Amino acid sequence: MVAIFPSEEWLKGLETKLNVDARYGDIAKGWEGDLFIIIEPAGNLKQQTVFYFDLWHGKCRGAEFNPQLSSHSPVFTLTANYDHIKDIMTGKLNPMTAMMTMKLKVKGNMGYMMRNVPTVLDFVRCAQEVTKEIM
User: Fold this and answer.
1) Cβ atoms of 77 and 69 closer than 8 Å
2) For residues 50 and 38, is the Cβ–Cβ distance under 8 A?
3) Is 44 inside any structural domain?
4) Tens digit of pLDDT for each residue in 122-131?
């Protein structure tokens, strides 16, 4: 059975991928920070969806589907509507372009994010690789 993006099953698949992917582990070995990804309704997505990732030194120490926003105080919060996230997941929109054009809003230390572009891009690569079907 293929996990549909965005779903809890998809999130668990990405968590596993991040923890077994040697390339991601090497590229992200210096990353320290957790994040929310908030997907606002648009297109086929009718309600807000939230992913929480606890990322540390090339591993995902935990991932949560639709946690309360008050449950964590992450280093980063990324917010975009579903259509923009879908375009990132299918490779139609570069995540860095999305950030620079405000299609993907970033709350947190943008300097840290820019110094770690390879980590950001490889996180997206992993997410794209586990995405086989989109809502």
Assistant:
1) no
2) yes
3) yes
4) 999 999 999 9
